[in-house]
């Protein structure tokens, strides 16, 4: 089976996804890679071998392989299956503390948030299909959101600190409400913590300020609207949550090196090029 997502990762992507259907597509030998893999089974049944342990997963279940773990998968003879793989480098995750809960191979059965997990996976596929190489920033946001949702579920060997869980709740809220007015004081009050404490812990866990993080979500959504709709720039600015188009233009350019109009026209920004595996 061709590994389309793996090919994208070999070309320097931080996040890549692929949906595949197949029958009797079994790996002949174990493999490993230097990035995370989330294997999401949508139909059929699959067996996964990793670290001297055999895992069997059913539809709507996921298995996570950390970087460097040798593994392979196979199915029952003649049984069709459909799966999505999500590959991501550790540095693609916007707040590193979440990765502590995914340090070992583990199976997640996200019954409580199944539809929301599926929604994020579908958005990852859509962004990659529509924006191509230009969709990496939004895909980093989406894979972070996916981990937040999975972190809430029962998981084998999950290790999440209480404070990390609180910040995860804040980030989940921001992903759901980024288009609304957001200010530090109101946000802190919603989660019953002081603005100072929220600002400090949010920065420590994510490396960004609250407003900087929100602006990243807004610009990621704006990029999709610029590509997929003919809405005027001013309307897109309002849809994603900016109070005025001047501020939107300034933030958009600072994050993409392009104006919204240039981005819509398909101009290529000047970006740092990293070697594969860096």
TrEMBL record:
Entry-linked Pfam families: AraC_binding (PF02311), HTH_18 (PF12833)
InterPro entries, A to Z: AraC-bd (IPR003313), Homeodomain-like_sf (IPR009057), HTH-like (IPR037923), HTH_AraC (IPR018060), HTH_AraC-typ_CS (IPR018062), RmlC-like_jellyroll (IPR014710)
Keywords annotated in UniProt: DNA-binding, Transcription, Transcription regulation
Top-level taxonomic group: Bacteria
Keyword Ubl conjugation in record: no
Coiled-coil regions listed in the entry: none
Residue ranges constituting the HTH araC/xylS-type domain according to the UniProt record: 168-266
Protein's UniProt name: AraC family transcriptional regulator
